[in-house]
Amino acid sequence: MNRQLFVSLDGPKGAGKTTLLEAMTKVLRADNKKVIRLCEKKSDPFRAETMVLVNRLARNPSLDLEREVCERLADSRAWISRNVLTKQPPDSIILMDRWYPSDAAFRRMVPFAEILQLNIERNVRTPDLHVGVVTAPEISWARAAARTRGLSSTVIHKLEEHVACTQAFEREIAGQGGFYAVMKGRLKTQRGR
Q1: What is the DSSP pairing of strand 179-182 with strand 93-97?
Q2: Does residue 101 lie within any of the structural domains?
Q3: Per the domain annotation, does 192 fall within a domain?
Q4: pLDDT, greater one: 136 or 88
Q5: Domain tally, the chain
Q6: How confident is the model at residue 179 (pLDDT cuts 50, 70, 90)?
Q7: Angle, nearest 10°, between helix axes 47-59 and 63-83?
Q8: What pTM value is reported for the model?
Q9: What is the secondary structure of 98-164 as a DSSP string?
Q10: Structural domain boundaries, residue 98
């Protein structure tokens, strides 16, 4: 491989993204591949300001505020595309935890086609492979709730919301023609969860 391969993993909380990322990293590194693991949230220098808007949106939902959140996230991804992804070795495999398809899971009013367009207009890097990770909502909800940090969600507070989030994500990722990994049932990590 003589060029970067950019792979994003997206999906609702507790679906198994981290477990899949850990497994992929282990297999690829065992094959002597150069793997770079990134997380959109941790790579975003503007995340604190965006989360202020997300918190306002959670308390007082409105189309204008949700659109502003989507624009801020797209701006952040454009920054990451220019300032983080371009700095990675040219022969590496970049595994990104969340990218723009994840907006389909959490946005309520702004259509995903509009979110996609916001990212395109800002020259956000398109992954070579999108992997949508879903698990039966009841399983992923229980798994997320059992974490030491709990659900830690600003926008999802009830199982019904999580079910709707999972269904929205499944529809959008399938409709975009991306690779779609369905993870159902129990998933074991190295820590035995």
Answers
A1: unpaired
A2: yes
A3: no
A4: 88
A5: 1
A6: low
A7: 160
A8: 0.82
A9: --GGGHHHH-SSS-HHHHHHHHHHTTPPPPSEEEEEE--HHHHHHHHHHSTT----SS--SHHHHHH
A10: 5-182
Q: Could you say which DSSP state residue 86 is in?
A: G
Comparing 158 with 124, which gets the higher pLDDT? 124
Task: Work out the average pLDDT over 143-155.
Answer: 71
Note whether residue 193 is domain-resident: no
Q: Is residue 177 part of a domain?
A: yes
Q: What angle do CA 51, 52, 53 make, to 5 degrees?
A: 85
Report pLDDT for 68: 94
Tens-digit pLDDT profile for residues 90-104: 999 999 998 876 666
Cα four-point dihedral sign 146, 169, 10, 157? negative
Q: 75: domain CATH number?
A: 3.40.50.300
Rounded CA separation 81/42 (Å): 14
